[in-house]
Amino acid sequence: MKRLLKSFRIDLSSQTATLVATLWNHRRLITWSMVLCFAILEGLMIEDKTWLFQIQEAYHGNPNFPKFLSKMGEFQFSTLSLSLLLWLLGKVFHAKRLSLTQASRACLVAGLLSGVTATILRPAIGRARPFTEEVASFHPLSLRHKYQSYPSGHVLTSGSSLLAVASKIPVLMPVAVGTTALIAWSRMALNKHYPSDVMSSMVLSVLIAWLVNRATGSSFD
Hints:
Structural class: mainly alpha
Number of domains: 1
Shape: globular
Radius of gyration: 18 Å
């Protein structure tokens, strides 16, 4: 097991320089993607509360279902567990070893990059969460949980990780998109994020997955 973990660490560390170079080479795309995300926030802010209320009112199912989906969007499940599973499968199924190993690496890198992105943006922007009833309230540089609504860490992390996997194994793309959408819905159903929060997070997750795919090698069918 120690040897397996060591090889996994080597696989991951070998991509660090490539990822940094990829981010730098596409800095203009990253900048415009951020502009798009802020445009979504600005454009939807007025309707955010109304749309959130409609989304919550439309669901009459088991209240534990959105909680389960939201839990699956956490880093330890959507990134760590999935990455480890793919890596182990890559060791077992040698015919698909290359694609599974690349998918595992891309999943972990995407999740980590998303975590860093969310950790920087959320306190820097300081948007109040829906349960505070402060729709257009911002508290920049606040470290309080209730002022870290934008973007959604769950959606950003799970979305980028799943899409990064699907970029290596294209047949999984419908599953990745569908799961990300469900996790995004769960965060709104639980009154944790506004529609503009999750929409911006989905834009960023697509960007991160694409950048990670570029940095971690070609995809396989």
